[in-house]
Specification:
Layout (H helix, E strand, L loop, with lengths): L3 E4 L17 H11 L10 E3 L1 H7 L3 E6 L11 H16 L8 H4 L2 H7 L3 E5 L3 H12 L3 E6 L5 H8 L4 E4 L4 H15 L2 E2 L10 H23 L7 E5 L4 H13 L6 E7 L4 H8 L28 H7 L2 E5 L1 H12 L12 H15 L4 H6 L7 E6 L6 H8 L10
Parallel strand pairs: 3-11, 4-5, 4-7, 5-6, 8-9, 8-11, 9-10
Antiparallel strand pairs: 1-10, 2-3
Helix pairs in contact: 1-9, 3-6, 3-9, 6-7, 9-10, 10-12, 13-14
């Protein structure tokens, strides 16, 4: 199956569409200040792949490496930690800006908030972040995973003291099941997607993700690059993509970058929602059995969808081999560039960029999106080798290779 691109005919300028106020620079600084109270906090690397950029005919390819985040091999903990921190702050009737990690796990706070069980559904990385935060703050976590989840991801969550089990449902049905269990058992649902009546926690999660975008912009400027011209963002439910797009569109207004949203064919709910062109979010049903486990989501986040609808320039739906290509490219870019260990969901944007810049089929996209020697392209490798056996099969042994297309 070939790569499909839909160009947004109604893209708006920064601030002319959906509100970006919840993701703007002022909120972003508050979020990062909270993250800095964790001793594990440090900005993750931003790699400037100059040789690969030259080979692709670009000015810069900048890769934010989230495999280093809090020792958890993925960015997701940024959202879970900030959301749980906000929830506890509300219980304490205090602004989160007045709290830090040490206070939140103190005996005094524990006594005030009581014992809480945080529940979530995950493909792996989000649940690990919720489990880690719950343990850090002296609380419990219960995590459910969709059918087909890798055992190593289950083990990683259980190693953090959380209860974790794999359901016989797909991701979206598992989310609904977890919500019902949370309502019945008095648990607090910490989910990175939203629906009517459940919006505060997903908003806090999106705000948590903004820390990585703040870091990336600062790191670029320290390199002498004022801003990216193009940003490729992978989407599952769209929370991560909407958060990073929202912050950069607000922070760089009126000269916001060109944003391109990338999804797997079998879970391309954002692409289908955009291509339907009625302005409404549309779901993808079925098994969602894509290599890109972290993007195997069929229901768009109702908070992030308007942001992606209004400000993205293009939406791309791609086969699984695109992610495998990206993993191999980042693992061995070109001599002199820093290698990046990037998992299936982390590397798909690198695979798409190679297709656009070096294939004949990508020529129209290259021209339409204005990608050339003056372009500074930002990619975010959202995870490392979170499934090590899958990573080795692809990078070492060529699974999902070009010959299998």
């Amino acid at each position: 199956m070939s790569i499909a691109v839909f160009y947004n005919p109604a893209r708006k300028s920064s601030g002319e569409g959906a509100s970006l106020s919840a993701l703007g620079p002022e909120k972003a600084e508050e979020v990062r200040a909270f993250h800095k109270t964790f001793k594990e906090y440090a900005p993750t690397p931003l790699h400037d792949l100059t040789h690969l950029a030259d080979a692709f005919g670009l000015g810069h390819i900048l890769v934010k490496d989230e495999s280093r985040r809090f020792g958890l091999n993925a960015f997701k903990v940024l959202g879970g930690s900030y959301a749980i921190g906000n929830y506890l702050a509300e219980k304490l009737k205090r602004p989160i800006s007045t709290l830090d990690r040490e206070q939140l796990c103190s005996p005094e706070v524990q006594k005030q908030v009581g014992n809480i069980t945080f529940a979530t559904t995950t493909d792996g990385n989000h649940g690990r972040g919720v489990a880690w935060t719950a343990r850090q703050l002296g609380q419990k976590a219960v995590v459910y995973m969709p059918r087909g989840s890798a055992q190593i991801r289950v083990d990683n969550i259980r190693a953090l003291g959380a209860e974790c089990s794999v359901t016989d449902l797909n991701y979206d049905d598992s989310v609904r099941m977890t919500w019902n269990k949370a309502q019945k058992n008095g648990w607090v649902m910490v989910q990175d997607t939203a629906w009517s009546g459940y919006e505060d926690i997903p908003t806090w999660i999106m705000q948590g993700y903004v820390t990585l975008a703040v870091e990336a912009l600062e790191q670029m400027r320290s390199m002498g690059i004022q801003a990216p011209t193009h940003v490729f963002l992978q989407a599952g439910v769209g929370s991560f993509a909407g958060a990073v797009l929202g912050y950069l569109a607000a922070a760089l207004a009126p000269y916001m970058p060109t944003f391109i949203i990338v999804e797997p064919h079998k879970a391309d709910c954002i692409y289908r929602s955009a291509a339907t062109a009625d302005g409404m979010p549309h779901s993808v049903k079925g098994d969602l059995d894509t290599l890109m486990a972290g993007l195997a989501c069929g229901d768009p986040n109702t908070i992030s969808w308007p942001i992606l609808r209004d400000y993205a320039a293009a939406y791309i739906s791609c086969p699984d081999y695109t992610a495998a290509d990206g993993m191999r490219i980042l693992a061995a870019p070109l001599y002199g560039d820093s290698p990046v260990i990037s998992g299936e969901s982390g590397a798909v944007t690198a695979g798409i960029l190679q297709w656009i810049m070096q294939s004949e089929d990508g020529t129209h996209a290259r021209e339409k999106l204005g990608l050339n020697r003056q372009s500074s392209v930002l990619l975010i490798s959202t995870e490392g080798d979170t499934s090590p056996s899958t990573y080795r099969d692809i990078v070492w042994f060529g699974k999902y290779g070009r010959w299998s297309r």
